[in-house]
Amino acid sequence: MLEEVESFRRFIKSKGLKYTPEREEIFKEVLSCSGHFDVEDIYLSLKNKGHKISKASVYRTIPLLIEGGYIQEVYRQSGRSYYEVTLKKKPHLHFICIKCNQVEELVENKLEELLQKEMKKISFSPLTYHLEIFGVCSRCRYKE
């Protein structure tokens, strides 16, 4: 994690911003997330660990993490944005249930190969990408 923290420090300074202990704590907390998260998740986790960080600080740091390529917005539901760490993560699909908000991920090598082939054809260099498929999960269909 030291390498990632140093990368974040350089990124913040390259933007002409101050590198603060609060930003570092938020960054470390975000990197520790294994699944999808929102601002509230990060804020509450830090608060429960005894850190004195405001929710506003988390809100201000998230766009920097997106711009730096550390995280990406995955989807929005009920007025909330959900994110995931993109470092060392392969592109993948998200199946999102519109009824219960359950999210399943699928890493599909054949799809990845197809996308890479098509991007190469047009000399396109992606920064990051993800695919979302919205529908109804089997549990919600069963309930109907």
Automatic annotation (TrEMBL):
Q: Write the record's keywords in alphabetical order, separated by commas.
A: Cytoplasm, DNA-binding, Iron, Metal-binding, Repressor, Transcription, Transcription regulation, Zinc
Spell out the Gene3D superfamilies in the cross-references. Answer: 3.30.1490.190, Winged helix-like DNA-binding domain superfamily/Winged helix DNA-binding domain
| Free-text comment on the cofactor | Binds 1 Mn(2+) or Fe(2+) ion per subunit.
Any one Gene Ontology biological process term? regulation of secondary metabolite biosynthetic process
What InterPro entries does the record tag this protein with? FUR, Fur_C, WH-like_DNA-bd_sf, WH_DNA-bd_sf
GO cellular component terms, alphabetically, are:
cytosol
Molecular functions (GO terms): DNA-binding transcription factor activity; transcription cis-regulatory region binding; zinc ion binding
Q: Where in or outside the cell is it found?
A: Cytoplasm
Q: Name one Pfam family in it.
A: FUR
Q: Which cofactors are reported in the record for this sequence?
A: Mn(2+); Fe(2+); Zn(2+)
Major place of residence:
cytoplasm
Self-association and partners: Homodimer.
Q: What PANTHER family does the database record attribute to this sequence?
A: FERRIC UPTAKE REGULATION PROTEIN, ZINC UPTAKE REGULATION PROTEIN
What this protein is called in its record is: Ferric uptake regulation protein
